[in-house]
Amino acid sequence: MRRQRGQRRMNAKTPLIIASHNCQGLLDAAARLARGAAPVDAVELAVRRTEDNPDDHTVGYSGWPNLLGEVECDAAIMDGRTLRSGAVGALRGFRNPITVARRVMERLVHVLLVGEGAARFAEEMECEPREMLSPEARQAWQERLRDKLGLADPVQVRSVADLARLGRWAVDPEKAGGTVTCIARAADGNLAVGVSTSGFAWKYPGRLGDSPVIGAGSYADNRYGAAACTGFGEWTLSTSAARSVVLYMKTGLSVRQAVAEAMRDLHDVDIKMTGVVNVIAMDADGDHFGATTEGPTTNRQYLRATPDDPRPQTNPMASMPPPPDSRAARALAAPDD
Questions:
Q1: Measured at the alpha carbon of residue 179, what is the angle toward residues 178 and 181, in degrees to the nearest 5?
Q2: Which CATH architecture has domain 16-333?
Q3: Bridge-partner residues for 192, per DSSP?
Q4: In the chain, pLDDT over 90 holds for what percent of residues?
Q5: What DSSP string runs through 16-38?
Q6: Which residue in 19, 24, 179, 225 has a CA-CA distance of 20 to 30 Å to 300?
């Protein structure tokens, strides 16, 4: 098979970052790489900036809450040099989940902490506590409950016996605008990847998608490359999509070919609701590529930044939707229950 390259790197020795369209602070992160910082430092910086953006309702502060009005955040970070990783899921009440995830990687023998355990650990690490539900997000949640259930007092939702029935309200974060992913490559070839999200809007409490699951939402290995996913996490969880991209590069496929194979893996998943998956990836040499399951009219993009860029550069994502006869396409086209 002819090896097809993705977007060419500027220079193998030039620090490089690629990220989802909503990622903040890329130029500062790239500059930090140029000064000799580790890729995990650059990734954490960029993701933290995005978590603090009140206008992004799918990441960190001001994220859309679950059905009970609680903002539950997920994050993961991985070092491609050591293959060490850390993650948190359903974390409530702390400002920067990506920093808590990094502390898990550096301080514990564990990889993933969730819920009350993640919050206890964040407190022990003296991470900054914060009320994560912004007034704007609270108002949107209250309006949702009034419109769908006729509840004048949103607190009444806690007494709803069949909360699972309301799970169909959950909104894929890609439809809402986001989840943030970031891949950094230093001049010495070291890689790191990070991801953070507040997940589906109005999700069932405790729901985890792919973001805190290493291998599903993100993966990095200096020898082959790195990948990260946004969108419908239940879909990518079914195929361990990020790890699959890296494994396909291990077999000798280019970054473009590896992403295409991982997208084809998604075609056989019988998904339960409509959604979108986006993948960004970079190989060990710094070639990079992005793709989406949206159709050919998509205008989705991902960002790229080096220390020499005056501003982050945009790259188009290739359209790789499920073919009409695939199991995924049939499930997407099926009417809601």
A1: 120
A2: 4-Layer Sandwich (3.60)
A3: 79, 184
A4: 75
A5: EEEEETT---HHHHHHHHHTT--
A6: 225
What's the distance, Cα to Cα, between the start and end of the chain in Å? 43
Q: Where are the domains of the chain?
A: 16-333
What is the chain's Cα-based Rg?
19
The per-residue pLDDT for range 45-82, each reduced to its tens digit, is 999 999 999 999 999 999 999 999 999 999 999 999 99
Coil, strand, or helix at residue 295? coil
Residue 23 in contact with residue 52, Cβ under 8 Å? no
Distance CA 336, CA 170 (A): 13
Give per-residue burial for 197-235: e unless 16+ CB within 10 Å, then b: bbbbbbbeeebbbbbbbbbbbbbbbbebbbbbbbbbbbb
Instruction: Give the C-alpha separation, 284 to 154, whole Å.
Output: 50
What are the CA-CA distances from residue 187 to residues 8, 255, 256, 308 (Å)?
A: 15, 19, 22, 13
Residue 122: both structure tokens together: 């964040």
Exposed, middle or buried, 55 (CB in 10 Å: 0-12/13-18/19+)?
exposed
Beta carbons of 26 and 303 less than 8 angstroms apart: yes
Q: Which residues are catalytic?
A: 179
Dihedral angle over CA of 255, 257, 260, 262, nearest 10: -70
Q: How far apart are CA 220 and CA 192, in angstroms?
A: 6
CA dihedral 106, 108, 109, 111 (to 10 degrees): -80
Q: CA neighbours within 13 Å on the CB side: how many for 107?
A: 14
SS3 state at 112: strand
196 forms beta bridges with 75, 180
Question: Looking at residue 2, what is its pLDDT?
Answer: 45
